[in-house]
Amino acid sequence: REVISVHVGQAGVQIGNACWELFCLEHGIQPDGRMPSDKQNQVDDSFSTFFSETGTGRHVPRAIMVDLEPTSELYSLDEIRTGTYKQLFHPEQMVTGKEDAANNYARGHYTIGKEVIDLVLDRIRRLAENCTGLQGFLIFHSFGGGTGSGFTSLLMERLSVDYGKKSKLEFSIYPAPQVSTAVVEPYNSILTTHTTLEHSDCAFMVDNEAIYDICRRNLDVERPSYTNLNRLISQVVSSITASLRFDGALNVDLTEFQTNLVPYPRIHFPLATYAPVISAEKAYHESLSVADITNACFEPANQMVKCDPRHGKYMAVCLLYRGDVVPKDVNASIASIKTKRTIQFVDWCPTGFKVCFYFAIEM
């Protein structure tokens, strides 16, 4: 049940770089794609949903990176081509255009995007042919950039035609209220949201301002760089996809994300919260209980998007626990949250919390 990741535009590619670096660390895969000799005979190959194995024993990500800009002064594909993980990807997995979309949705969707869409779909087709049972696609992009908005919406329209019922999940960088890289971000966001609404099954949104604040407050990083932001986002992506990459009980299928979190097809924007975000120095000196972590997940300060759900009501909640957690503690924390009535559910939805445990220890 394989999953293909598609990284579009500068934001998508840079997050992809951080994610694949983390996936390799979690599965014990070296930067050249090989397994250390002592791990080669292990039984658990659940990560084959995200990696394919070549005849020579190398593990290659089931991913494609697309950026319409041939070379970016802020690096993106160049960073991967020359970085530590340059041997991990096949050169054909990286597609560049002749000129960038210049923060313009129309250029990404209609003019420049049209020139490379067939090539990108061909590369995706090759990845799909290498799968025994393709589940669907994870699409990483920003809503504010020209490529991230325009080209992604074109690509998703075409994927709906070519791959029909296959699930499409998005990890999107949404423009933040105070942090903006281009004055036209609101236009691009509205246009891409309108186009992808019918073609996306579930979209996890992240805004840079929320991530900046978490880095400053929890990790003591005074001036967070994009690398800091992307590494934090990659931890969130890793936790959401852990059940696809490891033996887990719940959400082992992409469609289960929709079942658990999407009440109506068009309302498919779940709010992701991550806890605990804690620096390595502090981690050794602090002990956090399951109740603390669970409560932290309902604090606006730990959300990936700047908004306050305490002014609204919840339609669905899915809690993913990772590590040394026992169901008894989780049930107690959820019971405590329910008794406080701090979380209001809509009256037409049962106040159920879907819970997933993932116990295994990474490499």
From TrEMBL:
Pfam families: Tubulin (PF00091), Tubulin_C (PF03953). It comes from the Eukaryota. GO terms for cellular component: microtubule. It catalyses: GTP + H2O = GDP + phosphate + H(+). Residues 250-362 form the Tubulin/FtsZ 2-layer sandwich domain. One of its GO terms (molecular function) is GTP binding. Signal peptide: none annotated. Keywords: GTP-binding, Hydrolase, Magnesium, Metal-binding, Microtubule, Nucleotide-binding. Gene3D superfamilies: Tubulin/FtsZ, C-terminal domain (3.30.1330.20), Tubulin/FtsZ, GTPase domain (3.40.50.1440). Its cofactor is Mg(2+). SUPFAM superfamilies: Tubulin C-terminal domain-like, Tubulin nucleotide-binding domain-like. GO terms for biological process: microtubule-based process. CDD domains: alpha_tubulin. Residues 47-248 form the Tubulin/FtsZ GTPase domain. Tubulin is the major constituent of microtubules, a cylinder consisting of laterally associated linear protofilaments composed of alpha- and beta-tubulin heterodimers. Microtubules grow by the addition of GTP-tubulin dimers to the microtubule end, where a stabilizing cap forms. Below the cap, tubulin dimers are in GDP-bound state, owing to GTPase activity of alpha-tubulin. Dimer of alpha and beta chains. A typical microtubule is a hollow water-filled tube with an outer diameter of 25 nm and an inner diameter of 15 nM. Alpha-beta heterodimers associate head-to-tail to form protofilaments running lengthwise along the microtubule wall with the beta-tubulin subunit facing the microtubule plus end conferring a structural polarity. Microtubules usually have 13 protofilaments but different protofilament numbers can be found in some organisms and specialized cells. Belongs to the tubulin family. This is Tubulin alpha chain. It comes from Onchocerca flexuosa. The lineage of its organism: Eukaryota, Metazoa, Ecdysozoa, Nematoda, Chromadorea.
